[in-house]
Design a protein that fits this description.
Order of helices and strands: HHHHHHHHHHHH
Distance between the termini: 27 Å
Helix content: over 70%
Number of domains: 1
CATH architecture: Orthogonal Bundle
CATH class: Mainly Alpha
Number of strands: 0
CATH superfamily: MetI-like
Shape: globular
CATH topology: MetI-like fold
Radius of gyration: 20 Å
Number of helices: 12
């Protein structure tokens, strides 16, 4: 979330040569199907970086999420430039502008993005299945998938595993519920 927030802040509040083109390229990557990028990602993560069977192999490809950058850019555009200029006059640097001024203003949007990205990462099945080979490193969806055999399905195990796998998401949602609802409602209200 930190990387996507920084990217969104940079695209919303800084103008640099080629920023519109670069943002257009980032948004254009949304049109590329995931299945097209799986093999090049695997070659990079497994062969070049030698990260097979590590959680870094699951984490690194999703650090800079395109939807997260777009969502945070939209959220940071609602932060008044006068607020940032006043902080600059008071001596705040770029990182302080981001961390102490702009980020608290968009906290509801950040909470909503956190829940959305957590749910997407938690439910990801294909990528962890490809990069994790050891059973001790399996994520919850991949571990649940191993309960389905060719001739036998462990329905009881699948049901228990599904209930257990929903608990972390429910805890995160309950902790961030107020900010999540404020973030969703804030996008629906027009000034």
């Amino acid at each position: 979330m930190v990387i996507t927030s920084m990217g969104g802040f940079a695209f919303a509040k800084y103008r640099f040569r080629g920023s519109a083109v670069l943002f257009g390229v980032i948004i254009a990557t949304l049109t590329i199907p995931t299945f097209v990028t799986i093999i090049p990602q695997f070659v990079l993560v497994a062969r070049e970086l030698h990260l097979t069977n590590t959680y870094w192999a699951v984490i690194l490809p999703t650090l800079a999420n395109t939807i997260g950058i777009f969502y945070m850019r939209q959220a940071f555009q609602s932060v008044p430039d006068d607020l940032l200029n006043a902080a600059r006059i008071d001596g705040a640097g770029d990182f302080r502008l981001f961390w102490q001024i702009a980020l608290p203003v968009v906290r509801p949007a950040l909470a909503a993005l956190g829940i959305i990205l957590f749910l997407a990462s938690w439910n990801d099945y294909l990528w962890p299945l490809i990069v994790l080979n050891e059973k001790s490193a399996y994520t919850m969806p991949v571990a649940l998938g191993t309960l389905v055999g060719l001739t036998r399905v462990s329905w009881g195990g699948i049901m228990v595993g599904t209930v257990i796998s929903t608990v972390p998401f429910l805890v995160v949602f309950m902790a961030l519920q107020r900010q999540f609802i404020a973030g969703i409602a804030g996008g629906a209200i027009k000034d």
